[in-house]
## 1
Amino acid sequence: MSIVKASENRVMTGVHFMLGNYALVEGAVSAGCEFFAGYPITPANEISERMSQRLPQVGGKFVQAEDELCSIFALAGASLAGAKVMTATASAGYNYMQEGLGYCYTVEAPIVVADVMRTRGDNFASYADVYQMRYGCSGDYEAIVVCPSSVQELYDYAIWAFNLAEEYRNPVIIMSETTIALMRERLDIPKASEIELYNRKYTTKSPEDYLPFGADTPYGCPDFAPLGKGYNTIYSLNPHNEYGSIDWNPDEFERLYKRVCGKISENRDKICRTESFMMEDAEYAIVTYGSEVRPSIDAAKLAREEGMKVGVLKLCNIWPVPEKAIAEVSKNVSKIFAVEMNMGKYVNEISRVAAGRCEVLPITKNRGLIHTSTEILNAMKKGVC
């Protein structure tokens, strides 16, 4: 992996009042996105719209695909050819991409996918895809899912997502949803010289000595082969050995998947990010992610006005699970409130990590709208009584 600065011609430095979907595009373009393939679906359409304008301006390519399956496999090919790539869809479209995503996990193709979640069949907010983002594909793999909570973070986390994809040769999912995707807020885009980008590492070995799926460590990432230089790498979904040859050998198969999974799970602490608010003296904690973060912080402030010492742990990513931060919170509070916009999904991961050290209570809502701060406050009061 090499670290470089962003290109000035790609970065719209300055203060903007921008739609969330547009901010995500600007983050991707700043990160060096060179190829986008997508199929129309609300509430993600503005991403394709702006990509179709911005990529040609910076020498990139935009493809209007005939469906989601074409989109994801086009990404796979472009990524393996050396490009930084992205697609965007919404929950129903994300269903159709699972086969291609599974292929990308297996051949270790770095791609970025924005899933702008919505309720089933309607353009209302939801976090119902939480488990699908982790377990939707067949086979063994580890997912990386980042969770922006504002228009600013849609920009910032898009850059983070591309850097993670390049560093770990893995698909990275940007978890968005209708609320933040379609709102307009202030966006501060820094100078290009202030933006660090990660680029994949290419092998210096000859074609004869190169192992397409061999790494220096048991949990490392293979170096890429440069395109058109005679390496002739086979990227197959089938069981393959370090040479890339299709070969059903149980020992080779086990070693491959221990590495494919381990490169993420063994680097969990390096990948995961969290932020804490008012946790220094907290007796109760809200653990949440995405657009539910802001009403949760407001609810914690309201609770403190009424004498309840509540803090907030914001999960900047949910996969891999930020276990160290959640475990630490569970040691220091009597109750954790898991705020989610679904019927209760990630609360199970929080409960697993808390391991009985404190009570974990879900605060859920599945009505196409994020929680209000008052709803969260009232639910906490009931949980405390």
## 2
Amino acid sequence: MFGITSSTERFIVSQRWYSSLSAELQEQVRSSVYAIEGAKGDVMMAAGTTVEGWHAVVSGLVMLRSPACKGRASAFIGIPDGDWFGEGSAMRP
């Protein structure tokens, strides 16, 4: 499902960095945000997908893992709700 959801907007505006943005930039961020919902076991971003921004877990747990090799996959890390991953998360203080 795509589109701004009230929980997604609440999540964005509650971020510490959000209040430091100008009103214009706040609006740009809010209008650029979208949500993708998945069920347990769904692949949300396939291996090799270009990361083009920040990704936040609004609710649930996202597992970042390596591609399967000889039928096996290794979990790298679990990202809980409220946390970020992707290009931007590396720039956080």
